[in-house]
Amino acid sequence: MVQGVRAQQREQTRRELLRQSRRLFADRGYAAVGLAEIVRVAGVTKGALYHHFASKEKLFRAVLAEVQDEVGRRVATAADAHDDPWTRFTAGCQEFLTASTDPDLQRIMLVDGPAVLGWHEWRALDEAASGRHLAEALTDLLAAGLIPRQPVAPLTHLLSGAMNEAALWLARSTDPADLSATRAALGRMLDALRADTTGTPCRSDAVHGTR
Q: Where is the HTH tetR-type domain (predicted)?
């Protein structure tokens, strides 16, 4: 019983550290936030912080993983709202762009993430979250004959790279119209991938902002 209570308390401490550090990192950025401030607002000691996270970078990595998982869930939820495989695919891609413009996620995921952890580790986290959903969606499209037969891995990385680059650009944009323009451009790019099974041009309403 005592061990169970202590385990619960440790988990609560960990969650509070993640919650408060995420808020601070989102508001002011990684470089401007110190560990002393984090433990103060979380109401814990530095010893408690170091029990869970060996360094500020390790704490940030845990926050970033949480953010990446959240974006992955948003992508999956947007896709799962549709039964048609093509609409599932395009809705998920568009939700990734939309999620990347959320101010609470932008600084952590797109600005500080690659800078603090390095590009390769940042990409690994992205692949485990949104990238996994993208690969699954492309596999479904291939099975349904909606895109020409081809290896999934290269196409996944090409599309993921394009969307990540667009998300990075949107994170630094000051023009609200850039999101709708980027969504439309993404829609046209995705439509170009689709196999023409009818002999007529393909068009996905979902990716052109009419869903």
A: 11-71
